[in-house]
Amino acid sequence: MDFQIKYITPDIKLSSYDDKLFKTEVLFEYHMLVWFISGETKIIQADTTYLFGAGDIFLIPRNQPATIINYPKDGLPHKAVAMHLTTERLANIYRDKETYGSQPVSQKIRSYKEHPLLKSCLASLIPYFDLQDKLPESIADLKINEAISILRVIDADIDQLLANFDEPGKIDLVSFMEKNFMFNMPAKKIGYLTGRSLSTFNRDFKRLFRTTPQKWLVQKRLELAHYELSEKRKRPVDVYLEVGFENLSHFSFAFKKLYGYSPSELGEKRN
Which domain holds residue 265? Predict the structure, then answer.
C-alpha cells in the first residue's frame, strides 16, 4: 500500500493513494473542503451515500460520522487536496458579520461539482507542495480565506453552516443509533455527539436497548448486510465495509454465527 499525505500547513494537505482501496471512518473536528484530482471516493453517511470522481469539489460538515472508501481509477492514483476550515478561523471571519448561523441547517455534504472559482483556488495550491521551505502562514491564510469567500458567493446558505458554532446538544439516542450504527466510534464520541457524558450514554443505552452497545451494533450491521445481500443482490466483498466491519473474514464468521449460513451460501441460495 502506497498512501501518502503531505501538509503544506496544518490546515492544507495533499493525499495520494495507489493501492486497490483505502477505507477510513472519520468524524472531522472542522469542516473539510476537498477537491479530487484523480481517483474515486464513496462516502457513506447516516442516510445518504455519495460517489465523487476526478474534478469534484465538496464540503464535509464537521461532527458528522462518515465512512470513506477511496479507489484509484483509470490507472491513476486517488489524489486530493483538502483544506480544514477551523472553528477559530470561521469565528474570526464571522465576528462582525450579520448571519443566521443559529438556525437549523442541513448537515449533508455540499457538492460544488467543478465550480471554476473553487477549482482555480484549490488548483493554485498544487505548486506549493513542491516547496522545500515552509509555506508562509500569511499566504496560507490568504488561500483559505479566499476559499471561504468563494463559498459565501456561490452558496446562498453556507453562512448558516459555517457560522454555527454550537456544540451538539442532547438528542434522541434511539434515532441517532438507528441512523449511525454502521460507523465505528468510541462510546465517548457517541456520547458527545448525542449531548451526553460517557456514563450517561452507557446508562441511557442500557435502559433503551436492554443490551450492550457492542452486541446491538453487531446485530444491526448483520441485519443490514443480510438485506443488502438478499434484496439488493450485492456481493459480500461490496457489503462488509459499508456496514461497519473491518475485514471480510470477521464479517463472514459473525454472519454465519447469527444466520447459520455464510454470506456466500446466501448468494448461492438466492441464485
Answer: 173-270
With CA atoms as reference, report the closest residue to 78 among 124, 135, 34. Answer: 34
60 domain-assigned? yes
Residue 168 lies inside a defined structural domain of this protein: no
Contact 68, 41 (CB under 8 A): yes
Domain boundary among the residues 162, 189, 207 is at 162
CB 93 within 8 A of CB 145: yes
Per-residue pLDDT reduced to its tens digit, 3-41: 688 899 999 999 988 877 788 888 889 999 999 999 999
What pTM was estimated for this model as a whole? 0.80
CB-based contact 226:266 (threshold 8 Å): yes
The Cα 160–Cα 230 span in angstroms is 41
Q: CB count, 10 Å around CB of 239?
A: 22
Q: Give the cell for residue 31.
A: 469542516
Judge if 132 and 68 occupy the same domain.
yes
| Helix (H) or strand (E) segment spanning residue 81 | strand 78-85
